[in-house]
Write the structure tokens for this entry.
Amino acid sequence: MFLGILLAGCASGGGGGGPFGDGGTPGLVCAPVPRGSVLSYGAQEFNNASKSTATVSGVDLASAHRLRLLAAWVVPITGYSLYGVRSGYPPAPDLPAGVLWSRRQAADGAHVAHSAGHDVINLVLDVMPGRVRD
């Protein structure tokens, strides 16, 4: 079974883009997921352009069909590699040094400090395909 995820970005609500940007760039990722298994999708990044701490008001899947969001995390990244797309629940073994999994927060209600330099926040979603009907 292959799982396709279409994301529309990581934007805050409200006009002008807010502290998390302008809505991001839509993208599509297809990854093999055995039936009943979980995929950790960590290929989306954002930063906090404001000078103060911002709060993530919520995370959800847009137009999700046969896909359940099990958990969503914001993970600070200080290197040049994101969490990535991996099978199973996080944390995956052998994460790059700049993926600060120990400093993760549940995405809903997460407090995100100003992003300095090239540092970003990685949105990591745990998703599971739902039952496919003929």
